[in-house]
Request: fold
Amino acid sequence: MKLERTLNFLQRNIKTLLVIYLIIQLSYVLFSNLSYKSDSLYYFNLAQDCLKLHTFYPAPVHLYQDYIIAPLYINILVLLLSIFNSEITIGLFNIVLNFLQLWLVYKITEKIFSREAARILVIIYIFYLSTLGLILFNFTELMFNVFIFSSIYFYLQKKNFRLFVSGIFLAASIAVRPVGWAVLGAYLICELFSNELIKNNVKKIGLIIFGLVLFVLLFGSFNYSHFGKFIFTSTNGPVNLLIGSNDDATGAYNDKVFEKGKIGYIPDSQNKTYVEKENYWLQQSINWIYKHPLKYVSLFPLKIVHMFIWDDFSVYRLLDLKDWDLYRVIKNIITGNDEHLLGDNPLVLKISYFILLILHHVYYFSIVILFILIISKNFKAIFKKSNLKIFLIFMMLGITIHLLTFGDARFKYPNIITMMIFIAPVIYQSTVSKKLMLKYKPEMF
Reply:
C-alpha cells in the first residue's frame, strides 16, 4: 500500500519530478569536478587532437593508434568542443541525451502498452542512478542508446519513410558502437519469421538497409576525405576479442595480453598502423581460440557475471569519488588491502558511499529479477503477439556479441533501460490490482 501511494503521488507530480531531475543534473555538471580519466579522457584527448589540427576524427595523426574508436561520437565531440572547449559542454550535452533517451523509451512504452505504463517507466528511469552518474563521464552509452531507441521507435511505426529513417539511426548507432549490428539482426529475425507476406517483409528490410547503407556511404566518405581511409565504425573488435581469448583471460578487461612476452605484444608498435596491429591481433585471437576452444567457451559464464553482478560503473561519481568503484572495494577487502579503503576521505563520505551502493544495487537487482520473472511468465505471448520481441532479440544478440570479447558492467546499460520497458506495465497493473501481476493481459498488446 505504501508503494502504491508513493507511485500514485509521483505520477500526479511527474512534471515536478522531471524539473527536480533536471536541476540535480545541472547542479552536478556545473558545480562538480568533471576531470576525466580512462576512456572518458581518451575520447576527450582524441577530440582535442582534432581541434588543434583543425580537422575531424580520425585525423592522419591517428593512423598509428591501436584502433579507431566511435568515429561518429568523437566527431560530435569535436563539433561541441569547437563551440566551447570544456568538460561542461559534454556534461550539458549528456543531459540533453539523457532526456532524449527518456522521451524515446516513454513514447515506445506508450505505443506498446499505455500512457499510464509510460509514466511509471519515467519514475523507474529517474531513480536509476547509473544514468544520473553517466552524465559526469565522457562515454558513448547515452548517444548509442539514443540512436538505438530512435531506430526502434521509427521501426515500430511500420511506415515506409520511417523505416528508412530507422535504418539511418541504426547506422548512426553502429558508427558509435558496433554492437548496434545486433539491432539489424533483430529486425531481420522479426521480419523473416513474421506472419506477413514475404514481399512486405522484404520491402521493410530493404528500406531499413537502404537508410543504413546511405548513412554508411556518406559518413565513410566524409571520413575518407580527411583521413584517406573509408571508416564508419570502430575497429577495436580484434583488440577486444584478444582480451577475451588468451592465457590470462578472466572474462573481464585484462590487458596483460599486451605485455612483453604475451601473444598480444607488438614490438615497435608505435610505428605500426592500426590496420597492421588489428590484423595481427585478430590472427592471434583466431589461433588461440582454435587451440583452446573449451577454455574460450568456459569463459562465457564469467563474462555474464562481470556484466551483471554489479552496477557501479558510474554511481561512485555521484559522491565525487573518482578512483573507486565496487569492484575495487571488494578486491581490496579480499586481498586484505583495506586499511586505505577509499583513501583519506572523511568517514561520513565512506559511510554514505556504502549506503548508496547498497540502496542502488537493491534497486538494480529488483529491476533485473522482476524482468526475468516477467519474461518467464510471458515468453510465448511476447514472441507471438507483441512488438516487445524486437527488444528481447536485440538483448540476446547484443549479449552474445559481448560473450565473444569480454564482460564489463557498462556493456549491459542498454539492456537495463530496455528492461524498464518490460516491467513498467507490470508495476502499473500491480498498483491498480493491489497485488503483484507478473503476467501481461492480452489486451495490453
About this structure: The first helix runs from residue 2 to 12. The chain has one domain: 2-444.
